[in-house]
């Protein structure tokens, strides 16, 4: 079982930026960033294949960028033009995530003035 560690969250004003990191991934997997807002289900934000192809959900298009390092052991999520509705705990995991795949603690992103 891979131990995923998310980091980089914080408090940012609307319009600001954050860069999230996810360490200890396995290079052969496609990876995704997910988020869960209070009272809502966890949802996919973006995904990246082991070869680097990417895909985004509509709310992330044009604002978020997913990438991975050359060793393919860390995945990043660059988030620009953040909005209050982006407030959530952000997680990384395999894509698609299976029922036996453990989740990390996530990293809290709060967008507020």
Give a topology summary.
Layout: E1 5-7, E2 10-12, E3 18-23, E4 31-36, E5 43-48, E6 54-56, E7 64-68, E8 74-79, E9 88-94, E10 107-111
Parallel strand pairs: 2-10
Antiparallel strand pairs: 1-3, 3-8, 4-5, 4-9, 5-6, 7-8, 9-10
Strand order of the largest sheet: 2-10-9-4-5-6
Return the average pLDDT rounded to an integer.
93
Query: Which regions are unreliable across 5 or more consecutive residues at pLDDT < 50?
Result: none
Helical region count? 0
Structural class: mainly beta
Strand content: 35-45%
What is the number of beta strands?
Answer: 10
Helix share bin: under 10%
Instruction: Give the overall shape, derived from the CA principal axes.
Output: globular
